[in-house]
């Protein structure tokens, strides 16, 4: 299914697709560093950085948290 078809179906159900997309991006930006978001979603790093900034998450402790989870 193409993104246009999905958007059309969501609109028919009364679900605004842009709001859902933005909400999902915000949740990812809260939990993941911008470089990871960029790689996962194919976004430009600048776009991913903007989302991280809006979410208020700089992910300074991400590497340490990840290292603790692996041990």
In short:
The protein has 71 residues and is mainly α.
Question: Would you write up a description of this structure?
Answer:
This protein is mostly helical and 71 residues long. The chain has one domain (3-70). The chain is 75% helix and 0% strand. The longest helix is centred in the middle third of the chain and has 15 residues, at 17-31. The model has no long low-confidence stretch (mean pLDDT 84).
Unreliable residue stretches: none
Strand content: under 5%
Structural class: mainly alpha
Order of helices and strands: HHHHH
Integer tally of domains: 1
Mean pLDDT: 84
Number of helical runs? Answer: 5
Could you give the distance between the termini?
40 Å
Please give the largest β-sheet. Answer: none
Principal-axis shape equals elongated
Helix proportion: over 70%
Number of DSSP-assigned strands? 0
Radius of gyration: 15 Å
